[in-house]
Amino acid sequence: MYRLNLGLVNFSRTCYRLGQIELAHHIHSIVDTIGIIHSKYDFNQFLNDLSKSGRIDEARQLFDKMPERDGFSWNTMIAAYANSGRLTEARTTFRLHSK
Length: 99
Known about the structure:
Elements: H1 2-17, H2 21-34, H3 40-52, H4 56-65, H5 71-83, H6 87-98
Helix pairs in contact: 1-2, 1-3, 3-4, 3-5, 4-5, 5-6
Protein name: Pentatricopeptide repeat-containing protein
PPR repeats: 39-69, 70-99
Keywords: Repeat
């Protein structure tokens, strides 16, 4: 199962990098549906890819599902909001992280 997980995560990331956003999103949906994202690293990679492709609301949904968040997770979400002009949400997320 780990190889399948790693393969899909890497394939999805490659799609994002090549500009194949819809294909990457479709892969992410499959991975999310079958629930094979288990490591914090995989969650963070998907979170980063979603936020960089402008899918801020989907990134937030993934962020909320994460069983464990680290500094990278929080910073990615705060930066996603800030970079998309959603400063109130960026501040709110920052305050949540600061508690």
